[in-house]
Amino acid sequence: MNSFWGNIFKPRGDEHEPTLSILRKIPVFADLKPRELREFERILHRREFKKGEIVFHEGEPGVGMYIIYRGCVGVYKNRPDGGEELLAELREGEFFGEMALLDESPRSATARALEPSIILGLFQPDLFDLIERKPKLGNKILLNLAHIIGERLRRTNEELEQLRRKLTESNIVY
Amino acid sequence: MSTNRLSSSQSPDDIALVISRNWLRKALRWSAAGILLAAVAWAVVKLQSLALLFVLSFVLASLLEPPVREMESRGIPRPTAVLIVFVVILSTVGVLLAVLIPQVVHQLQLALQALEGRSADDIAAQIQRRFLSRVPLLNSPAVLERLRGLVEGMMLRLMSSALWLFSGITYLFITLFVTFFLLKDGHRMKKSLISRVPNRHFELALSLSYRIGQQVSRYIRGQMVEAIIVGLLSILALYLLKIRYYAFIGALAGLANLIPYFGPIVGALPAILMALIDYGSLQPVLGIVIAFATIQLLDNVLISPTVVSKSVGMHPVIVAAVVLIGGTLAGLPGMLLAVPATGCVKVSVEEIRRYLKFRSQLQQTKAPPIGW
To answer: A96 at the B interface (CB within 8 A)?
Structure first.
């Protein structure tokens, strides 16, 4: 049965559509038990974006990550000449902005909806709140996030190493 | 066609049109905000008891949130945790009230009986006989007349407070009902409310609401703990000084302590008056003044800095002004709530300013090279 406030503040739209199958596809949440996943789903914010609407701007402080539930999002990097460079096109089940979950560093790219999209937002205040209320679940998510960021750092180091090697081979490094 | 953005290719006429449009939009926005603020202030004043009920429920929910969270972190579902906390708190309060309420009611009854059949003239004359007649300067008909008015006012207030004590039980149950749902479904309610914020401002609104919520809860909890400690110390001091109705007057002093500067004086007055009526000498009055001054010293040096958030420090002139404004708008509840309410607004404004400053600093620095 819906609770008292649930009836008063009934959300708009088809909120009860299953989001769990989307969440299971994402590495950060893949090993969560169904009950944990349902608990986690409660702290997500479902946002609807029109085509061309900005999800976040480069340089702005970010407080969370986004998971694409439906639609498509383009990630752009500002060029020195004032234009934009498309870095990636992300689709259903893909996520972006996860660095902002751990610190409030500025967004390093702009994200824009390329078509009408439904995006699930996971934000730092809600994650901190979850860690306080459900430490086991919160720690599991944090550990998975650390794995993903660690993996990304390892890959970046490898790329850096390759670049350095190439530069050494072409005698540019001094 | 002219847009609302300025560019170098626009003619001076177009630029003037854009500036006037932007100015008009800003003026409309500020007017709408002003009207909304005035409407909220009007509604709060008009629906005082309803507003007070929600504020009380919010305060109670803030106080009970930590134990609920603690239980939730130990794997107990939130509704069960809220229920357990309610049962424990109600039982404890029930036991305390079972001990304290008969005492307070008994003392109140005694006070009312003592007043029964006695007019304000009698009491004023008694005070004059016992105390004022000993001070030549105060032994005049004009002082007696002022004293009579003062006693009459206090008697009326005592009668109405006794009536309020009984009618307040219904109010208390409604407050507890609202508190229960605020605790159980507060998160969902907040999420539903925040979902109405447009995408452009969503992250900012969410982050600010979290920070403001944390600061305000910390402040409310601090204030309540401070009031309880001061109340208990006052009860102990008055009991040791053998002042009649010590429990009632001490509890009142604790509650009055929520009103800065005026509160301690308001809290000490009934005790001083009682000592004057009973003993008719300055010695117990001096004892009360010393006891209350010591409690205030302890409060300012030890209790307040430890339990109340330091971030809500306000200039004494502003505190005095808001207390007076609160009193004018909504009487005693207005005086009680003026400082916490102003504290909440101050915390909110500070958080918004801090965030905007942080945001502008970030925009000036270069973005990190990896990850988005």
So the answer is: yes
Distance (Å, whole) CA A42 – CA B262: 46
* Residues of chain A positioned with their CB less than 8 A from the CB of B370: 108, 152, 156
Degrees, nearest 5: CA angle B300-B304-B310: 115
What are the CA-CA distances from residue A145 to residues A45, A141, B350 (Å)? 19, 6, 32
Same domain, B215 and B94: no
Same domain, B210 and B115: no
B220 falls within a domain: yes
Residue B3 lies in a domain: no
Q: Which domains does chain A have, with CATH numbers?
A: 16-169 (2.60.120.10)
Examine the predicted complex and report whether its ipTM is higher than 0.85: no
Average pLDDT, chain A: 83
Asked if B362 lies within 8 A of A60 by C-beta distance, the reply is yes
Pair (B75, B176) in one structural domain: yes
Q: What are phi and psi of A58, to 5 degrees?
A: -60, 135
Q: What pairs with residue A65 in β-bridges? A: A122
Report how many domains make up chain B: 3
Per-residue model confidence as pLDDT tens digits over B6-65: 555 667 777 777 777 778 887 887 888 788 878 877 776 667 777 778 888 888 888 888
Q: Would you state the structure tokens that stand for residue A53, as one six-digit string?
A: 């609407």
Q: Which residue has the tokens 């009984």?
A: B166
Q: How far apart are CA A71 and CA B146, in angstroms?
A: 78
Residue A88 is classified by DSSP as E
Residue numbers of the domain that contains B89? 50-185
Q: Does A60 sit within 8 Å of B372, measured CB to CB?
A: no
Distances (CA, A) of B146 to B10, B100, B121, B143, B155: 75, 35, 11, 5, 14
Is B257 domain-assigned? yes
Residue B339, min C-alpha distance to chain A (Å): 27
A66-75, A128-137, B39-48, B131-140, range with the lowest pLDDT? B131-140
Q: How many residues does chain B have?
A: 372
What gap in Å lies between CA A105 and CA A58, rounded to an integer? 11
